[in-house]
Amino acid sequence: MKWPAHKDHAETRGTSGWKVQHVERFCIDKSNNTEFSEAINSMFQWYKNATRCYVYLSDVLKSDTENVKDPLRASWKKKFRESRWFTRGWTLQELIAPSCVEFFAQNGQRLGDKTSLEQLIHEITGVSINALRGSSLSNFSIDERMSWSNGRKTKKAEDKAYSLWGIFNVHMPLIYGEGEEKAFNRLRIEIDQQSAISRAISEQVSLLSRIPIAMGASFDSHAEEYNPTCLPGTRMGALHEITKWAEDPNAKAMFWLNGMAGTGKSTISRTLARSFSKRAQLGASFFFKRGEGDRGGVSKFFATITAQLVQREPALTRHVKDVIDRDPTIFGKALQEQFNNLILEPLSKTHSCRENNGAVVIVIDALDECDGDEDTKKIIQLFSNANSGKPLLLRTFLTSRPDLPIRLGFASVQDTYQDLLLHEIDECLIKDDIHVYFEHELGKIKAEYNTSVPNHRRLPSSWGTHSQIQILAEMATPLFISASTACRFIAEQNRKSKLDDMYLLVLEQLLSGMSNDEEEKTFDLFRRVVGSIVLLEQPLPTVALANLLDISEDTIDTLLDSLHSVLNIPPSPQSPVRLLHLSFREFLIDPLNRNKHRFWVDKSTTHRYLLKCYLHIMNKTFNLGNLNVRSLRYPLKAYDPLERPDTPTLEVQYVWPHWVYHAQELGDRTVLDDEDYHFLEDLFGHWGWQIVKFYRALGHNIQLLTRGT
What we know:
Elements: H1 33-49, E1 53-56, H2 77-81, H3 91-96, E2 101-104, E3 110-113, H4 118-125, H5 129-132, H6 142-147, H7 159-162, H8 165-168, H9 179-208, H10 236-247, E4 254-258, H11 265-278, E5 282-287, H12 301-312, H13 317-326, H14 335-349, H15 351-354, E6 360-365, H16 373-384, E7 394-400, H17 404-411, E8 417-421, H18 427-452, H19 466-476, H20 480-492, H21 498-508, H22 516-535, H23 542-549, H24 553-560, E9 567-568, E10 578-579, H25 582-589, H26 603-621, H27 650-666, H28 674-698, H29 703-706
Parallel strand pairs: 1-2, 4-7, 4-8, 5-6, 6-7
Antiparallel strand pairs: 2-3, 9-10
Helix pairs in contact: 9-13, 12-14, 13-14, 16-17, 18-19, 18-20, 19-20, 22-26, 26-27
C-alpha cells in the first residue's frame, strides 16, 4: 500500500473493515545488489501472495457525496483515467498479480476495487479483463502481454524490460547500464527459451497420453513403494560389481543377476534402480509380476519402457512421436519391430545429447515371471544386440530365477552379457547381510511393539540379542525371503508364509499346458524324483538317482530343468543335486500341507519307496561271495572303473550305509515283500559279521539289525 509520505498517520476504513492507523514505507536496499536483484525477481510473486493490496492515487479526488455504485458515471473517472499510476512501468504487475486491489482517492475515499472497476481499468490499460480476473498469464500471447506495457515509463531505461519479468515469469540478473534495447533482447531470448521448454513439455505430455503403459511396473510406482531396498552395508559386493559394469563404456550389453527363489534379487533391483535414477543414468525400469495384469506379460512392456525413456529424456519426444504418427498400431506389432522403432531408433538419434553422461541403463526385474517362454527369450535376444553397430551406450540389467527358458535364452547370446549367481556367493557374506537385516527389522519390531503396549508388557533389553539373531541368520541363510518371512511372523503372528506362495508359483509351471492325464503322470514322477531328493540322507547326482530309482537320466533331467529356482542343480551329472533351503523340504512334506497343494509328498510312502529301491539295488548288484566291504567308502567316492575296477557305483555306495536310515524312519510301518525278506535273511546269515563291522566303522545306528534278537 502506498500512502502519502508527508502523512505520518493516515486513517481509512475500506470494505474489508480494516482500519489503518500507521503506514510505514516498504524499502529495499538498492545498494546491495544481491538483495535488490532478489527483490526484483520475486516482486510479482510477493504481490500474488498478498491477500489484499491498496493503491493510493494522490492525483484523484472524490467527494463524499459522489455515488460509488456507478463509478463509470462518477465525476472522478476522468481523473482516474489520467492518473500517473497507470503510466508507471512497475505498477503493471502491482495491478495484475494480486487477487484483490483496492483504489483510494487523495482524501482517503474508497473508489472501488479491481473487480468493480475492471471495465474502466481495461479501457485505460488495455489489459484483458480475464487477466484482471486472475486467468493464467500463459493463456495470453507474448505480443499481447508486451502490449500491456505500451506508454508506461520508468526512471531507468532498463526497468522498462525488468518490470515485465514477473509478467513473463522469467528470472534474470540485473545489468543496469546495458540500455533498454539490450535489456529487451535478453528478455526476448529468455522468453523464447521458456516458450520452447513449455512447448516441449506440452508435446511430451500429449505424447505420453498416447502410450499405453503397464501400471505399477516402474521401480518408483506406488505398487513398489513399500517393497524393501538393500540396507546400508549389505550386498556391497554385488552392488559394486553391477555399478562398475554400468559405468564401463566397454562392458557387455547385459548383466544377468541369476538367483534362485528368495535370494533377494528384486531388493537389489530396486536399490540399483534408485541409485541409477539419482545419478540420471536410469532410462527405464520394469518389474514383472505374474498375475498382476499387464505386469505379467509383454503386451505393454516396450510401450512402458518407451514412456519412461521419454519422461527421462525429453529429446526423445519428437522422434517417438514421429514413429507413432507414422504407424499408430506400433504398440501391437512384433516385439522386434517395437524394440527397433520405439527404443533403438530414437535413442540412436539422440545419442549425442548423452554422450558425456554415460550409458542409459534399463532395469528389468523378475523376467521369469513374464508369461510366455518365447517372449522371455526374445527380450534377452533383443537387448543383447542393442549396441550392435549403433552409436549408443545402452545397458540392460536383468534379474531372474535360473528357469530353463531363460537359461536357453542366455545360452543363445553368449559373450553379450556378464552374470552373477547370487546363490553361489560365499554363504558367510550372505549370512552377515541377513544378520544386519534381522538386527534392523527386529529393532523396528521391538520399538513399534513397546510403543503400543503398557510398560509392564514391553519387551526387555534381552529380546533380540546378538546370539539370538546369529541363530536366526544361520537358519535363514541363504534365503532373504526366509528372513523376511520370519520377521513378518514375529511382527504379525501370522503363519501364512510367502515362501509357500513362492514355491507354489515355481511348481505350478511344471504343469503348464498339460492335459489331466499328463498332469497325473507328472505328479507321480515329481513325488518319486523330488520326493526322493528331499528325503535322501545324503544328496546324490542325477546319474546315481537314475540308477537308484530306475528312471532314465533324461527323464530326471527334463523334470529338474524347471526346478532350478528351488534346487541347486549343478551342470555336471556327477555332482549332487542339493536343496537350496530346508524350507522347500518342509513345504513338500509338512502334514499340514496335505490338502493345501497338489505337490505334497507323503513322507512314509517315499521312505518305503526308497527302501524298496535300495534293496533292489543290493539284491541285483552284488554277488555275495565277491562283496568287498572295504570298497564301500563314506563319504561317497566317484565311480571310476578304470582307476578302481572294484569301486562300486555311487548309488551302490550310497545304498549300504543308508538303507537302515529309511527303515528306521518307517519304524513299525516297514512293509517288505517276501523276496526282500529272503534276501535280507540270506545276506545277514552269510555276511552278518561283515555288515556289523561295516556299520560300526561308519558309526551308523544298527538298532534295526539287532531288533528282536
